[in-house]
Amino acid sequence: MFYYISLLVWLYGKIAYFRFLDDEGDSYLLEYIATQGPLPNTVNDFWTLVWQQSVPVIVMLTQCVERAVKNCEKYWPNTGETKLFGDVQANTKSENILTSHVQRVFVMKHQNQQNHVIHMHLTSWPVSGCPRSPEEFLHFVRLVRMQITDRRSGPILVHCSAGVGRTGTFIAVDRIFQHVQQKEDVDIYGTVLDMRRYRPHMVHTADQYIFIYSCINQFILDKKEAQEDFYETINY
């Protein structure tokens, strides 16, 4: 059984910091920061947060503009450009545009120190609804997980527009994904409920909640199929 505790002060009431603990009180090293998309007056604070928390991966689940409505400030420089955000300098080293997402590499500098941050931008999640298929979303979740090369690194920062619906859905799927892999009990209801205790409206709609079940069901089916193929190969 796992539960959450909130550890970070709320900046403008829009940020929550989650750490998972086990039954013995030992904290998992992988954590999440859930936040809304940066606004023009919070971009500098956003980059300061990324630097201070040693964030290795930023997961963006919204477009900057959706249905002619601006949901998020474009907070990163164009490829090859460098910008100063308060005391933090950021350079977009590369950008790889794929079918369902864009992967960028940021180089951050502060004083005499430098960090690399991976930006995983899911572009296929519609403003109203859920991704087209659980398989596609699970593929993205796996790609994000692959970017974590050191479990001692800082938390993954996840944001959409408001930082609750799509953000909560991603965190829930990723966390339960780990439970299944580690053969632990799966409690989707409990996972969402715990998140909502510390950040209201996480997993904002019924469709998003149902989509979590669809993703986990698909992952379990994929895992079962892989095991069956493995045993068929051995028997052959």
From TrEMBL:
PROSITE patterns: TYR_PHOSPHATASE_1 (PS00383), TYR_PHOSPHATASE_2 (PS50056), TYR_PHOSPHATASE_PTP (PS50055). GO terms for molecular function: protein tyrosine phosphatase activity. SUPFAM superfamilies: (Phosphotyrosine protein) phosphatases II. It holds the Pfam family Y_phosphatase. It comes from Trichonephila clavata (Joro spider). Residues 31-219 form the Tyrosine-protein phosphatase domain. InterPro entries: Prot-tyrosine_phosphatase-like, Protein-Tyr_Phosphatase, PTP_cat, Tyr_Pase_AS, Tyr_Pase_cat, Tyr_Pase_dom. The gene is PTPRO. Residues 135-210 form the Tyrosine specific protein phosphatases domain. Keywords: Receptor. Coiled coil: none annotated. PANTHER family: RECEPTOR-TYPE TYROSINE-PROTEIN PHOSPHATASE, TYROSINE-PROTEIN PHOSPHATASE 10D-RELATED. This is Receptor-type tyrosine-protein phosphatase O. One of its GO terms (biological process) is neuron development.
